[in-house]
Write a structure and sequence with these properties.
154 residues; alpha/beta; 18% strand
Length: 154
């Protein structure tokens, strides 16, 4: 007898789906998912900078805005953020201000990343709250998606 149970996707796999949807819209393929204290997905987004004509419409920022709106609060204490690329300075700061407990990211960003590369925002004196950071989750899939996207742009 075959087992036909459907495998549940991880939050990072859903973030990768959001990244693919962003790419289909002509956006840089980055996706983000936020889970609450119980591990339930409460927000997800892909980049929308071009669609919104808004340089701040990064996947992380949009997911934070949506989660805060849903919870009706400005802090996401106990929440976890899953994102397909190491956050930039703007997003790292927003993650800090939102008091996100844990940050999981897929691919490192040697040029624009601000967590383990670049300014290392969470190690700086101006950072009020540093989440626990775990990098390299589904790194290969995220890197392939990004490389493929940028190869078509060159």
């Amino acid at each position: 007898m075959m087992n036909h149970t459907k495998q549940k996707l991880t939050p990072m796999q859903i973030a990768l789906q959001q990244a693919a949807k962003a790419e289909a819209r002509g956006e840089v393929p980055i996706g983000a998912v936020i889970t609450d204290k119980a591990g339930r997905i409460i927000a997800q987004a892909g980049n929308e900078t071009r669609a919104n004509n808004d340089p701040t419409a990064h996947a992380e920022i949009l997911a934070i805005r949506r989660a805060c709106e849903l919870l009706e609060q400005e802090r996401l204490i106990g929440c976890k953020l899953y994102v397909t690329l190491e956050p930039c300075n703007m997003c790292a700061a927003a993650i800090s201000f939102a008091r996100i407990e844990r940050l999981f990211y897929a691919a490192e960003d040697e040029k624009g990343g601000a967590v383990d590369n670049g300014t290392r925002f969470y190690a700086s004196k101006i950072c009020h709250h540093a989440p626990e950071v775990i990098g390299g989750i589904n790194e290969v899939e995220a890197s392939i998606l990004l490389r493929k996207f940028f190869k078509t742009k060159r």
